[in-house]
C-alpha cells in the first residue's frame, strides 16, 4: 500500500528510493520493479518472530511466487531455505549459486528426470507426494547408491478459507497422502523400510492468501496428533514439522492480513500445549515475502468513454504479465505514478491490451485526470506476476528491475520479438 514516504516532492511514486517514472523511462514498460529492502525486512520479521517464541525453525521461501536467479541470490544472502516445484526452478536456483542442501523439492508429479536431477545435485530434502514418487525415488537411489532426506506431504483434512483453486489441505486434493484413508501410514511404512531414504518429517499446506490464524492453529494441532499416532505405530518422531505457507497479503483496502508475530505466536502456543518435544518447525512463505515488494509499471494509452457507463483506460500490458485478475478474479489497486499529488476525479476500468474481453486488470480504479503517456503503477504484484507471465498474442515478457537504497539494477532482460521466434522452426 502507498504511504506518504513513497511520494517524491514532484508528486512521483518512489520505489526503494528511486523515482518510478525514471525507471519507466530507463527500462521501458511494462516493467516489474521489486523493492529488495521490503523483501529482506519481511524475511527478518519471520525469523525474529520464531526467535521470540523460542522454537527451532527454518524459513523456506516458496519460490513458485517468483523464481529468477536474482531472488535466489537475495535468499542466499538472507540465509533462508527455498522450495522449488520443478526442474526449471531447481536449475535456476543452482545456476544462481544457491546451496543445494537448503533446497526442498515439491510437486505432485515429479518426473523421473527431475528426481534424478535432485538426487545428483544432493538437494536438502525431497517432499514425497504420492506412491509413484516413492517407487521412482527408491529405484533411483538404489541404482545410484545414494541416500537422501525426504518428507511426506500429507493432506490432513483441513480446508482454508480462500479461493477454491488455492485450497490444498482438504481430503479431496491432488496433493499429498491422505491421512483419513490410511494412505499416510502406508507411505510412512514404505519410506521407513527403505534404507536409502531418511524420513526427516511431515509436511502439510492448507492453502494460499489466508488471513486468519484459525486454520494454521488447527493444522499445528492436527500435525502433532498425527505425529503421536505415527510414533505409536512406527516408533517414529519427526525431526521437522513443515506447516507450509499461504499467509495472505493486503492487495486492497478490504484485505486484513495477519502479522508474522501473530501467526507464529499462536502456532507456538498450540504446539507447546500439545507436545513436550516440539520438532523443528518449517514454514514456506512465498507471496508474503515478495508480493508487497513488487510493483508493475505500465504506460497509459487509449481511452474509451461510454455515456452513463464507467470509462475504460488501457495500458500497454495486461493478462500476459498478470493473469491473476482473469484467472482468480484477484483485486489490485493502482496509482498514477507521475501524478501522485493530483486529486481523484473519476473511477475507471483499467483494461489490458490483450485480445480478450476478460483482460480487465482492475474493475473500478479511482484515478486523477489521465493522459496517454502517464505511468500507471499496479501495487503488490511481486508474487505470481512474472512467474505466471506468458507470451499470449506474441507479446514479449517484461523486464525485471531490483531497487535498493536508491540504486536500480536490471535482473531480467526484456524479451524481444527475436526471442519469441528463437525456438520456431521453418516448415
TrEMBL record:
Annotated positions binding substrate: 287, 324, 328, 356, 384
Names of the cofactor(s): pyridoxal 5'-phosphate
Binding site for pyridoxal 5'-phosphate: 246, 284-287, 384
Keywords annotated in UniProt: Amino-acid biosynthesis, Decarboxylase, Lyase, Lysine biosynthesis, Pyridoxal phosphate
Enzyme Commission (EC) number: 4.1.1.20
Top-level taxon of the source organism: Bacteria
GO molecular function, one term: diaminopimelate decarboxylase activity
Catalytic reactions of this protein: meso-2,6-diaminopimelate + H(+) = L-lysine + CO2
Entry-linked HAMAP family: LysA
Family the UniProt entry places it in: Belongs to the Orn/Lys/Arg decarboxylase class-II family. LysA subfamily.
Record-given protein name: Diaminopimelate decarboxylase
Species this chain originates from: Companilactobacillus huachuanensis
Chain's gene name: lysA
Amino acid at each position: 500500500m502507498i504511504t506518504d514516504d513513497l511520494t517524491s516532492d514532484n508528486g512521483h511514486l518512489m520505489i526503494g528510493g528511486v523515482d518510478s517514472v525514471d525507471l519507466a523511462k530507463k527500462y521501458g514498460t511494462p516493467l516489474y520493479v521489486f523493492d529488495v529492502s521490503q523483501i529482506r525486512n519481511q524475511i527478518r520479521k519471520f525469523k525474529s518472530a520464531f526467535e521470540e517464541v523460542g522454537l527451532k525453525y527454518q524459513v523456506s521461501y516458496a519460490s513458485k511466487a517468483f523464481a529468477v536467479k536474482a531472488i535466489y541470490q537475495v535468499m542466499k544472502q538472507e540465509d533462508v531455505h527455498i522450495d522449488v516445484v520443478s526442474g526449471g526452478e531447481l536449475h535456476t536456483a543452482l545456476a544462481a549459486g544457491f546451496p543445494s542442501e537448503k533446497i526442498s523439492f515439491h510437486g505432485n508429479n515429479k518426473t523421473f528426470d527431475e528426481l534424478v536431477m535432485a538426487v545428483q545435485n544432493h538437494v536438502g530434502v525431497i517432499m514425497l507426494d504420492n506412491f509413484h514418487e516413492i517407487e521412482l525415488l527408491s529405484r533411483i537411489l538404489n541404482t545410484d547408491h545414494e541416500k537422501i532426506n525426504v518428507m511426506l506431504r500429507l493432506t490432513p483434512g483441513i480446508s482454508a478459507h480462500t479461493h477454491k483453486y488455492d485450497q490444498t489441505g482438504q481430503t479431496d486434493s491432488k496433493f499429498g497422502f491422505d491421512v483419513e484413508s490410511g494412505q499416510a501410514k502406508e507411505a510412512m511404512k514404505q519410506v521407513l523400510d527403505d534404507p536409502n531414504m531418511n524420513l526427516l518429517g511431515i509436511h502439510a499446506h492448507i492453502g494460499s492468501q489466508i488471513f486468519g490464524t484459525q486454520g494454521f492453529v488447527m493444522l499445528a494441532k492436527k500435525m502433532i496428533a498425527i505425529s503421536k499416532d505415527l510414533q505409536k505405530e512406527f516408533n517414529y518422531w519427526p525431526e521437522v514439522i513443515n506447516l507450509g505457507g499461504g499467509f495472505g497479503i493486503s492487495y486492497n483496502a478490504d484485505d486484513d492480513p495477519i502479522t508474522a508475530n501473530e501467526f507464529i505466536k499462536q502456532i507456538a502456543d498450540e504446539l507447546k500445549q500439545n507436545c513436550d518435544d516440539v520438532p523443528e518447525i518449517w514454514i514456506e512463505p512465498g507471496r508474503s515475502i515478495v508480493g508487497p515488494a513488487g510493483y508493475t509499471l505500465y504506460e497509459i494509452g487509449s481511452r474509451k468513454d461510454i455515456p452513463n457507463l464507467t470509462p475504460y483506460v488501457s495500458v500497454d500490458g495486461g493478462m500476459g504479465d498478470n493473469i491473476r485478475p482473469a484467472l482468480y478474479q484477484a483485486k489490485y489497486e493502482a496509482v498514477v505514478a507521475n501524478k501522485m499529488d493530483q486529486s481523484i476525479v473519476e473511477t475507471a476500468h483499467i483494461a489490458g491490451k490483450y485480445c480478450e474481453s476478460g483482460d480487465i486488470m482492475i474493475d473500478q480504479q479511482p484515478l486523477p485526470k489521465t493522459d496517454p503517456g502517464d505511468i500507471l503503477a499496479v501495487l503488490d504484484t511481486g508474487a505470481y506476476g512474472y512467474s505466471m507471465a506468458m507470451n499470449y498474442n506474441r507479446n514479449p515478457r517484461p523486464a525485471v528491475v531490483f531497487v535498493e537504497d536508491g540504486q536500480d539494477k536490471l535482473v531480467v532482460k526484456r524479451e524481444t520479438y527475436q526471442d519469441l521466434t528463437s525456438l520456431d522452426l521453418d516448415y
